[in-house]
Amino acid sequence: MMPSVVLGILAAVVASALFNLAVVVQASEARSVPRRYALRFALLARLVRRKRWLSGVGLQIAAWPLQTVALLLAPLTVVQPADAAGLTLLLVFGSKMLGDPVGTREKLAVAAIVVGVTGLAFVAPERSTHHVSGVWIPLALLGAVALFPVVFRRGGLLVVFSAGAAFAATAFSTKLIADSLADSDWVALGIFGVFTAALAVIGSLDEMSALQARPASQVAPIIFVAELVAPVVLAMALTGEAPSGAADITVLVLSLGLVTGAVVALGQSKAVSGMVAAGA
Questions:
Q1: How far is Cα 96 from Cα 46, in angstroms, rounded to an integer?
Q2: What is the pLDDT of residues 168-181, one digit of tens each?
Q3: Domain residue spans of the chain
């Protein structure tokens, strides 16, 4: 395991903790706004007037450079699953602040994240800045999914998947930003930066709208899994950050499956979903 990969994992864990705390801070504010503002930019316009919600934005702004540093040090196929470790912070806070017990399921989920991320680190491919020519196509598709409920005012479970698509796109485009920094490609850096900022706004609108209408135990797992799996698949397919050899590929698939299952389990636990729901 390369030292840079370890440092990248550590940076990703800290970034994830900040991102998850931001959601906790912002969720209760979103639910206090009348639901008639869902999927309208007026919802964000109302939220930006609230210091508590803006403090969540501050946490996100602090987390993003750490995520970029993580992607400069390690491949996305390791960094993105490592983000799941941030959920353990919500688990601890939820248990301490809300009194929700940490059961066997939650303990197994935490262990699965540790084992899964460790497995991914051991088979981590070389970090790559190479991109195939069609790298924009999946990003455009994810962006279209994110925008669909906003443009056509379609609610329901689609909004949750749209939020997941938006954050999956920003996760992968952040990797492209890190690559542009490494290559000193300032034009690409500007393009990917604007795209990431725009999708972050759309994703926030989708997510806040979803949290207005649905319990956090339904919203959080879908977004977490989409944000975990889609960028990893894109990195392997479009940037060459995939292990070679049947044994390494097997370890990657099994490790990714462990982390994904753990994310679903933690997202549905009372301690984690309760934290998001209460905005404790």
A1: 31
A2: 999 999 999 999 99
A3: 3-278
